[in-house]
Write a structure and sequence with these properties.
332 residues; alpha/beta; Rossmann fold; 2 domains; seven-stranded parallel beta sheet; five-stranded parallel beta sheet; 12 strands; 19% strand
């Protein structure tokens, strides 16, 4: 049996992309395939979210790696992906196409990229935006789109909402300061508690979003944008940036998207929706419930697992040698 090694950074800082790497390995093992998360250090495991994922170290992997195995690289490894274990088949799990050309040189003299290397048999992406991006740049590459899954046991709209506005500052902290102060000095935040979510466990994030009535999204150049999706799953009314990749879900009538970097539009939209809540609270709560139902249906854990397994069944069967359009259609 082919073994699939999913390379993951040795970092225990909460970051959604790492959690998705673990889930990727879990989905394959759940369906009888042989997969491991590959960390560099022996004994390392991410603990900020619950998992029982099979984990191995670089040293142990190299002792048993076969030519028939697969290495799955995050896109952040850039042009160096094919330098490791040449000749072993590789898949790029690109969770943010905006990092596709990180570490690539500027100029027209060098066109080396792992996406066109014969060792790389497929690229997996997580949104319509990312699929379109890679097909535009590399028309001949084998791109497989999967859907993220939202854990409805954690992220759901069952909690009683409080007059709270949640937000994260990891992306665009300057915009956060601007928008919050624009709302504050107009009195739009009166009566509301601001809840900053930073460096929290998955359970803590879910609890904070479950309590909040609103979530301000400061997504920036995202492939998908898990925070606003998880907020919607928790019944929050989401206002803000979709980060490009989140455009497929952060949309009317379920949310209030705002043009990127348009601070005036952001503050005006937020003030309008907050005032609507003061006047018609049940109408706004119902919008949050509808948003939760929408994203939980579109991005279920079952769909994520089914997509991952379908992609790998094609990769393992060598289906990438066929039409890329047939490949994409089979995942619909």
């Amino acid at each position: 049996m082919n073994t699939i090694y999913v390379i993951c950074p040795d970092s225990n800082v909460p970051y959604g992309g790492v959690k998705q790497l673990y889930r990727h390995a879990d989905a394959l093992n759940n369906r009888g395939l042989d997969a491991f998360i590959l960390h560099q250090e022996a004994g390392f495991r991410c603990t900020w979210f619950q998992n029982h994922t099979r984990v191995t170290s670089q040293c142990d992997m190299e002792a048993r790696l076969r030519q028939s195995d697969y290495l799955v690289f995050p896109e952040i490894h850039g042009p160096y992906i094919t330098e490791y274990q040449p000749g072993v088949r590789k898949v790029i799990f690109n969770q943010n196409v905006h990092y596709t050309f990180s570490k690539h040189p500027i100029g027209n003299h060098c066109r080396h990229t792992p996406y066109l290397h014969p060792d790389v048999v497929a690229t997996i992406v997580v949104s319509e935006h990312d699929e379109a991006y890679l097909r535009q740049v590399f028309p001949g590459v084998n791109v497989l789109r999967i859907h993220y899954g939202l854990d409805h046991t954690l992220f759901n709209g069952r909690q009683l909402k409080q007059d709270q506005i949640a937000f994260m500052t990891r992306k665009l902290p300057g915009d956060v300061v601007q928008v919050i102060n624009m709302l504050k000095f107009r009195g739009a935040l009166d009566g509301f508690e601001l809840v900053e979510i930073d460096n929290k466990t998955e359970q803590e994030v879910a609890a904070a979003l479950g309590n909040a009535q609103f979530f301000l999204s400061f997504s920036d150049r995202e492939s998908f944008g898990l925070p606003p999706a998880e907020a919607m799953a928790c019944g929050c009314v989401v206002i803000g940036y979709d980060g490009s990749g989140g455009r497929e879900f952060l949309r009317a009538p379920y949310a209030y998207p705002v043009e990127a970097a348009n601070l005036l539009q952001f503050s005006q939209t937020a003030e309008r929706v907050i005032n609507l809540y003061r006047q018609q609270p049940e109408r706004v709560r119902e919008q949050g419930r509808q948003a939760s139902a929408f994203v939980l249906q579109q991005y279920s854990m079952q769909r994520e697992e089914d997509d991952i397994v379908a992609a790998w069944e094609m990769i393992l069967k060598g289906a990438w040698t066929g039409s890329r359009h047939q490949l994409a259609a089979s995942l619909q």
